[in-house]
Amino acid sequence: MSDQVMFTLDESEQVTHWYNVVADLPTPPPPPLHPGTREPVGPDDLAPLFPIELIMQEVTGERYVEIPEAVRDVYRQYRPSPLIRARRWEQKLGTTARIYYKYEGVSPAGSHKTNTSVPQAYYNSLHGITRLTTETGAGQWGTALSYACALFGLECEVWQVGASYDTKPQRRTLMEVFGGTVHRSPSRLTEAGKSFPEDHPGSLGIAISEAVEVAAQSENTKYALGSVLNHVLLHQTVIGEEALRQLANAGEPGADIVVGCAGGGSNFAGLAFPFLREKLAGAQSPRILAVEPSSCPSLTRGEYRYDFGDTVGMTPLLKMYTLGHDFVPSTIHAGGLRYHGMAPLVSHVYDEGLIEATALHQSECFEAALEFARTQGVVPAPESSHALAQVRREALAAAESGAEPVIVVGLSGHGLLELGAYDTFLSGRLEDDPLSDEALAAALAGVPEV
Amino acid sequence: MSDQVMFTLDESEQVTHWYNVVADLPTPPPPPLHPGTREPVGPDDLAPLFPIELIMQEVTGERYVEIPEAVRDVYRQYRPSPLIRARRWEQKLGTTARIYYKYEGVSPAGSHKTNTSVPQAYYNSLHGITRLTTETGAGQWGTALSYACALFGLECEVWQVGASYDTKPQRRTLMEVFGGTVHRSPSRLTEAGKSFPEDHPGSLGIAISEAVEVAAQSENTKYALGSVLNHVLLHQTVIGEEALRQLANAGEPGADIVVGCAGGGSNFAGLAFPFLREKLAGAQSPRILAVEPSSCPSLTRGEYRYDFGDTVGMTPLLKMYTLGHDFVPSTIHAGGLRYHGMAPLVSHVYDEGLIEATALHQSECFEAALEFARTQGVVPAPESSHALAQVRREALAAAESGAEPVIVVGLSGHGLLELGAYDTFLSGRLEDDPLSDEALAAALAGVPEV
Asked: What is the value of pTM for the model shown?
């Protein structure tokens, strides 16, 4: 094997289509239900929020969806994201595993979120929309949408979860650099926001309610969601499609273990679903692992039920692993993983036994992240550190057994705007806060009976 | 021309040698002088500070120096840095120019500095050295050396300019993430530091004095400099060597204008010197432009004289464009450009008329940076924004004249740890602070007569 550690793609190998896992699933995923009628929602129900192209992508059964030329033209600025063999980390771990990380931190927003913000802004721009609203937790999604809106001449208005807004002014500035307008959530600008005290730390569910409320009130304004929905997961599959080709370029016939962190599920699905296709087709047989924080463990401790996507109950009911839509997770540093539910498609494949899931404490994740930074030179986002910590476990197990698995891990973004979290860890002030049985039971009590 | 905008290199095209411009200069650059004897310094004089390989690189006349395999092995993790056609920015500017930016922000430290920190740490590690000391201004260099030391098992101790230390805690944390130890300069740990009040904003010159003092006192400790010296500029030429090949891959026969920001001079030289070689050989005929801040304009308003590299006067005397070694620039946001002198090699080629120089106000630079971010999706380091502002002028001039120059600009790093500066700009609180004639005269009065 050569000394090469960074794998890209020739122009002729660039990904031209997103992959829709629905086409290959043994059973179809349960449909979303209207919050009022409890009947399956149709395209008309979603029209106030989304442009027609995204609605059709939400419900399509086609295996591949072509990436519009205008979107590919933006992807070309930073894609393919590199697939990098983590040789130095392997040496440090003394492992016989071969570890490859797919690094989305090179994107304009510093995370995978641009993969979907760009097509979402593009499709909206085709229909005379002048403004998009959204929520953001860690700030990655708000940043990505602000940039995408700048490209297509749209205004972008972001409700940032209060706890994140208060502790990370740099993140707000970055959204403003890209032209976005940022509000602390809960805000006084919406009925949803006003139903909470002004100093409330907020949650993704509350911020979604605020952004949806504003979008629903104006004809020229639509809403954009950064995870959870089928069309978002679809856009993210560019990650896994590239990774499959890059892995082949690295001389590896396939992956044995595929690992991604999972909050709403789009980063995980983006990497995992193309590998799942290969697995379902019998071409590869990887274990596919979703990693979540022990403080917000929807897959591993939630229930697979219909629940609202937001806190106030304005969205359709989604069949998903949920902790309850009024669950407010502790203010862990991986803001992007603080969501009460899990994408319906990820929930479905988990329920079908096609993927595995595990939950980790954040201290173990930061330890892995620090080791990764000091060897590979990349400071991982706290979200991504969850995937790295699981890879560390797998790599140490391989060192023990002498196995030589090929591990592909999604590094969803860099942590350069999360250095406050690293400072907390380095100074010994980081505390783990796993979800208690009592808090879980209380939150699940709020899930509606359907 | 294809739609491709990002240009990399095949493994077979990777750069294997650094380029030494001294071999091709019409006249040799003046030698450094011993601060006591005022005689040219020899290798022995530098031995307390640097390992033999770096000393030999400092004085070599060889045209090419092979990059050690251990260094190339680290470069492979992030090099070649991408050369990217800035099509969206071109469209925004309405220019007929073709603009390519060479983006060093993908490196572990987020700037070009890793190109030299890695070989410096490596060479020191060959000689039983256990600790490196250094200064840092904006923090880019301290970050790069911390990471390089982590790779080769060395301790790293960094004196960070006080003004930067006070306003950018994230930068300190990043150095600590990579394992470095950070002191505010002026510190109480050195005689040099103690000669200034504890709350002094500091300067690169003072921080250099502190780091040199500590290194000189211990056998197992050496000093590492992040710019100015010949061997540092040599290591940075990997940038220009790659850019030349990538430009050819982009179908461009050569550059018409090459632009880089210049503080100590290593970023500028790294990009420019390989193009200067082509120019001296008659293969290309680019204008080569160094851009500096109007608050610290060593090339454009300094004098070409022997001066000390540090404030206290411990270093050799270097023939360079200088504002005077006790000049303390205003606390502009481009901390990496706040150095009183300019690399002797850059000074020499400027004096010979082989390159041009200009000085810009920081407000114009931030305007260009914001425009760049909102089109290209990259937030430039405040240092790099100086080069972008000059490119903007050139591109608008081309739009006026209809000329179609190929412009290559060095984007030395990202500005994700400088968002406080962007916030200052966005909120209208940014002030320009060009150097006054009186302050210049006062500072030049301190330059020793040689």
From this structure: 0.96
